[in-house]
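#structure-requests
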Amino acid sequence: MTDVHKPGSSQLIADRLQADPRVQQAEELLKSALLDAQAEIQGVQPADPQLRTDYQNLLERLSEARGGAPYFPYLASGIGKGPWVELADGSIKLDFITGIGVHGLGHSHPRLLQAGLSAALCDTVMQGNLQQHRPSLLVAERLLQLANTHGAALEHCLLTTSGAMANENALKIAFHHRAPADRILALDDCFAGRTLATAQITDRPQYRIGLPTAITVDFIPPEDREHSQASQQRSLDALDKLLKRHPGKYAALWLELVAGEGGYYPGCTEYFRKLIHRVKQDNVLVIFDEVQTFGRLSEPYAFQHFGLDEHAELVTVGKITQLCATLYKPELKPNGPLLSQTFTAASSAIAASLATLDELESTNCFGEAGRNNELHAYFAHQLAALSKDYPGKISGPFGCGMMIALTPGDGSAEYAKNLVHALFDAGLMSFVAGSSPARVRFLPPPAVTEKQHVDLAIEIMRKVLPSMNP
């Protein structure tokens, strides 16, 4: 376990507080109470009819407060167990979307209880650029150490509160070091966030309605799903044409190595190397956006999974890491005060990040024979069997690692949405992704998902699919 706090003999008051027997006793009592409560969670459970009216009232209040209804009628009660979560209407769902990939340890994990208690004893709730604590240093060093395991040379790590801000900081670094370059290259269907700048990179025109053009982004077609040479050449030709049309104007090539919001289609090493080789001829930086992929493939970072370590210059992480960060090479360190923000992360998020990184490694999520690959193979096999039993209802491909996806029916957005909501009503949480075709995606929590949970997910789909009409 990662811990900066020393035994009770430390000269620091803070360390003696953390090691105080009363604190340890309180932690054990709370953990015992949590485990007793979790014992009552056995599987999917319908809502309690007696709670229906109050729950609906809460949802209406939420819709009013936030200015629109939530995607799901979802308000958590405050407890779960692994991929199970109890809602405030008394129902229990199998959560295979986990906040769009945030909760890598699922719900109410004892290690996160421990992390939260440790953070609660910190002197401040939030850490920031002006004032940071020792775990801030540990988590930055940990992310760098993991990144450099196979030869990358990333030396700096800037913590931040959201994936969009991590991506914004990467953009600032890229533009700063390639000035006067003012354009970005990206693949079709990519997603980088919803800020003014990242919304330009996100290939969703509806996310830019009424917004001014903050930066100029040029899109190139990605390779096809079969990684054909013809599609790779078509992509390279488009890239070459843009680089020649706007010489010296591109600061960076933006790459999601697995198309996240685009539908969970992994690229291939050969293709990425071709793209990188071409942009390097024009001194263009490469940004690996790992906000969704981190922790879900055969290695902690997707660039490691694809063997691109030598090309890692700017890397962003988030979601499963519990906080977000921008990692970069030493030669990209800004020459002025470009990178600063009041909040870098909550004390609890930093503690949770360290615990999560520990658990992802200790539960053997990584490696060719690690649980990420093993569970993917198992889930994909089950989905392939399901597609044969229900032809026309679902089809592959089925994603990669712990990023699972399927094409529902005719691939229309309406059918995908209907299937996602039908699965939710039946007790299984998923979400949409992609367009042309629309996809249904799953992001099970890697460290706690077992084959039995996958079996239950398939069982729920078997109950729902017969009633679905594309």
